[in-house]
Amino acid sequence: MNSKPEILSPAGDMESLRSALNFGADAVFLAGKSFGMRSSPRNFDEAELKAACALAHSAGKKIYLTCNILPRNGELAALPDFLSMAQDAGTDAFIIADLGVLEAAKRYAPKVARHVSTQAGVTNYASANALYNLGASRIVTAREIPLDEIAEIRAKIPKDMEIECFVHGAMCVSFSGRCLISSYLTGRDANHGDCAQPCRWKYHLFEEKREGQFFPVEEDGQGTFLYNSRDLCMIDHIPELVKAGVSSFKIEGRAKSAYYTAVTTNAYRKAVDCYFEQGDPFTLPEWIREELEKISHREYNTGFYFGGEPGQVTGNGGYIRHYDNVAVCEENVDEATSIISQRNKFWAGDTLDVLPPDGFPFKVRCLSLTNGEGESVDSAPHPMEILTMKTDKPVLKGSVIRRKRDN
Question: If you write DSSP's letter for every residue of 21-81 in order, what string do you get?
Fold first, then answer.
């Protein structure tokens, strides 16, 4: 069997970073305030980047910093100082899409490993070998190539060059993420991390001579959705990914919540560990698959990994939500009492679903809730409110707490 792959998780802020580390990530990818491909998350300033690296390294984990925009001439003057700062902060690797940035990283941050982003569109072993010769130690493959071609790349590149592949999360309708739709429609440049995601919008059709009348774009059996990508999910295909020689399993989602990071990280951590314990033939425990139904997601698909293409969601334009994240356990008072911070409304008497730091979910009953003034309350209606909760089973510090939706 090949080496156990790294679980690489996303973080848009410190809360997500802690979730990734608590639930089994080997490495976390995040962005600074510049040069990263996601501008909507909070991201990390210099002090926060130093703190993130220190926290990860204290747990034996790594931090990868995204430097994967396609910079314009006017942005290059700030690049050397940014790269040097990131090296001083303790960054383990840069994720780079641009050859000029790759060369600058070698010069201004030589101690930091260089990974080539999926934005670079690496689809073959010749390209991978060329990048290795330029100083890259890892490629993130283009999302549109199948698994058998990834295996061929693995066989024809140096043994010490790593392959990173996305295994879960949102998929983009464009080639390797290089898209201009957002720029055309909103002026927001997707290649600078400011994508407005117009591929997720709902569209209507207008006829030229019927001003004010619109014709909804609907599914009629042939399909009329213009852009509506499914979400990638490879949880049922851990053996195939390992056998293809994938070094790092990457979870998309730096713009998503700490709850999403916790659940997806835990699912892939447990799936990989189970496979390496069980070997072939491998049966994925059903509870792991069920965990990925407890986050907000679009219809799942295996992307381009097995040939063909994933297509678009044709029956709806929204997300599937079976559960709400209602709280996080901040402290333990005793076995039956916890201090929690609320995320969504729930009620005393509810049966709740708990994912603890050891990663094995279980159910508890909320026996009572007490607010900060010591008053007994029937529900937790205020976002981020600190409450005391009594339950019929212990809920450990760091646990995320969910409630199944009624509908």
Answer: HHTT-SEEEEE-SSS-S--SS----HHHHHHHHHHHHHTT-EEEEEE-S---GGGGGGHHH
Contact 157, 125 (CB under 8 A): yes
For the chain, the residue count is 407
User: Mean pLDDT of residues grouped by 10 in the chain (407 residues)?
Assistant: 94 97 98 80 92 98 95 95 98 97 98 96 97 98 94 98 96 69 77 75 68 63 60 97 98 96 98 98 98 95 86 66 97 97 97 97 98 96 95 97 92
Euclidean distance between CA atoms 172 and 292, whole angstroms: 20
Q: Could you check whether the bond before residue 281 is cis, i.e. omega within 30 degrees of 0?
A: yes
Nearest-Å Rg of the Cα atoms of the chain is 22
CA distances from 238 to 33, 49, 192, 201, 371 (A): 34, 32, 32, 32, 44
Single-letter code of the amino acid located at 39: S
**How many angstroms separate the CA atoms of 343 and 91, rounded?**
31
DSSP secondary structure letter of residue 258: H
For residues 69 and 36, what is the distance between their CA atoms, to the nearest angstrom? Answer: 6
- CB 284, CB 238: distance < 8 Å: yes
Report the SS3 class of residue 376: strand
Q: How far apart are the C-alpha atoms of 126 and 132, rounded to whole Å?
A: 10
Give the DSSP letter of residue 209: T
Strands (E), 75-208: 93-96, 113-116, 138-140, 162-170, 204-206
Helix axes 46-58, 79-89, angle to 10 degrees: 30
What is the token pair recorded at 187?
């002026």
Q: How far apart are CA 131 and CA 269, in angstroms?
A: 29
